[in-house]
Write a structure and sequence with these properties.
26% strand, eight-stranded mixed beta sheet, 4 helices, 8 strands, Rossmann fold
Length: 151
């Protein structure tokens, strides 16, 4: 049974935090899906991931190609076609309790400087924990990641 980890981004932007989390998930040996809500935003993120440091290369692809099932990291607006063990959601993308329970981990990244994004994350926390999912809330307010809540 998996868990949902909520990451409240207040100091570092998504394009900095996501590669760090992707690297940790890859070190755990997981295949990952990054679910967003907008294909243009995922294309932008795809470019940022290709521009990362050589020693931190993250093999990935954008959904819709002929090799989606082979991608260690798949950027998608829908279901993961790569047999993901970890799902990372951005921009308020939906995640169902059944998905949380079937994956090793779900990471929900949200912009703490965007009130609608914070509200969406609160709604997701309530929906997932009310459904019995394990959840952790992580904040970087102090300058480093700290676990602030767990249910």
């Amino acid at each position: 049974m998996g868990a949902a980890y909520f990451y409240h981004l207040t100091r570092q932007p998504l394009e900095h935090t996501l590669p760090v989390l992707l690297g940790k998930a890859r070190q755990a040996g997981w295949r990952i899906a990054v679910r967003g809500t907008d294909s243009g935003r995922l294309a932008w993120l795809d470019e940022r991931l290709w521009l990362g440091p050589d020693d931190g290369f993250l093999p990935h692809g954008v959904a819709g190609g002929p090799h989606d099932a082979d991608q260690p990291i798949l950027l998608t607006t829908g279901n993961a076609a790569n047999a993901a063990e970890c799902m990372m959601t951005i921009d308020g993308a939906d995640i169902a309790p059944e998905e949380v329970n079937s994956l090793e981990r779900v990471c929900i990244l949200f912009d703490g400087n965007d009130p609608p994004a914070v509200q969406r994350a609160r709604e997701q926390w309530k929906a997932l924990t009310d459904a019995g999912c394990s959840a952790q809330y992580w904040s970087e307010d102090s300058g480093r990641w700290e676990k602030k809540a767990e249910r």
